[in-house]
TrEMBL record:
Secretion signal, residue range per the UniProt entry: 1-23
Record keywords: Hydrolase, Signal
CDD domains: HP_HAP_like
Descriptive protein name: Histidine-type phosphatase
Top-level taxon in the UniProt lineage: Bacteria
SUPFAM superfamilies, per database record: Phosphoglycerate mutase-like (SSF53254)
Organism: Sphingomonas oryzagri
The UniProt record lists the keyword Transport: no
Family indicated by similarity: Belongs to the histidine acid phosphatase family.
Amino acid sequence: MRAVTRVLTAVLATSAAASFATSATPAPGWRIDRVVVVMRHGIRPPTKAEPLPAGLAPAPWPAWDVGWGELSHHGEQAVTMLGAFDRATYAGVLGSGCPAIRAVADTDQRTVRTAEVYVAALLPGCTTSVDHEAAGQRDPRFSPFDGTSPLTNAETAAAANAALPQGGASRLDRDLADDWAAIDHILDCHASPCIAAKPTVVSANGGRVKLGGALATGGSFSETLALEYADGQPLAQVGWGRATRDTITHLLELHSREFALTARPPAIARAGSSALLGEVANALSAPDAPPFSLFVGHDTNLALIGGALGLHWKAPQFAPDDPPPGGALIFERWTDGSGRYRLAVRFRSQSLDEMRGLTPLSPAAVQTLRFAGCADTAGCDAAGLRSALQPGGPPLAK
């Protein structure tokens, strides 16, 4: 508890964050009156004891201080810094006291606990409940393909294959030969290749893209290395002492490439983000919505929204379009007080070193994303806001 308090005090002592909300202001006289944060959970261990296929790990994996897939204690402190940072940024929206906000999370421990820790730092001394379905129950806002999908397997596979380079999966594997070699070095594979010997395979099942082979293994492994590093584990244990931070940043391209096939193709992205984007649209446009809303889900949710809205980001020390632990898409509604609105979209994330060292976020933590949906000279009314977040397909739920 004292460690979390020290982190919170350190962040609140910095005033730089307060300037970020005023960057890219639509025009003089406009102000933010609504904020919606769609955030990935914080740092966690792998979701299972053996993150790689049997026989690939050259030695036992590092130990973690929580169960598989749960928010780590170090991750709690990193999330605390994010909540304090966002409080400083959006102090004008939150006001004083204990404002009514809405906080929603998926059912996993890591998402619920991330929301709880974030809200405690966002509104210190206040009591705010986090809404979520019962543990083990599917929430279609965060798990859109666990059950039914509006896409057939053929449509899903076609969308994913269209995102491959000319020459298909075999060309992709050839393009990534240096990455496979880097992973083989970390895995201490010398006699024969470990990763490149397993060609990437793209298929579909239940409306969800299924990856097999090198990219599936490499993408998962690159994130495991990043999580070990971000959690502050000794460097001698990160990748068994054979993975530097620069190597991890480079290999995270594989994690981003996974999303380019499984979540960002437009048809898949629209189908997978519709329910959550409907919530975002309502939070921005409904007359009775609170001034601040939070949705905590997974990296896939950010990738789906990014693909649906054509958003691209580059978090410090991560690959382009990779959603880091605690990373967030932030939707700001700006008003001039006359019923006109505009929408600004930003991406906020710690760097790998900021996560590892629990150091204050730098100005590079916030990026204004290119999104023209509701930023024209005339502004948008509430219906325009909803339309801006409707990337084709059927209308968003009212």
